[in-house]
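Weekly sync, protein design subgroup
Attendees: M.S., D.O., the rotation student, P.L. (late)

Item 1: inverse folding check
M.S. brought a backbone from last month's batch and wanted to see whether the design step gives back something sensible before we order anything. D.O. pointed out we never logged the input encoding, so this time it goes straight into the notes. Structure tokens as presented (70 positions):
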């Protein structure tokens, strides 16, 4: 709701099918995951790592931190 970086793909971390949607992504690509402040995205990255994603990274500070740095 606060904003979106570029062409980011939006997924609802609280959705019951979040894991299924993430599992459908290509595991060999690089992903930078963010939310408003970084808490939910850190949890999402942990889920991704558990699913076999090796290049999944949390944007520290989330969208709020990123937008302040712009």
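Designed sequence read out in the meeting:
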């Amino acid at each position: 709701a606060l904003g979106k970086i570029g062409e980011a793909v939006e997924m609802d971390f609280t959705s019951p099918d979040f894991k299924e949607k993430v599992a459908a992504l290509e595991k060999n690509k690089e992903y930078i995951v963010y939310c408003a402040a970084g808490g939910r995205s850190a949890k999402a990255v942990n889920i991704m790592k558990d699913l076999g994603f090796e290049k999944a990274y949390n944007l520290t500070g989330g969208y709020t931190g990123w937008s302040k740095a712009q």
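Discussion: DSSP finds three helices and two strands in the chain. The chain has a mean pLDDT of 94.
Action: P.L. to compare against the previous round before Friday.
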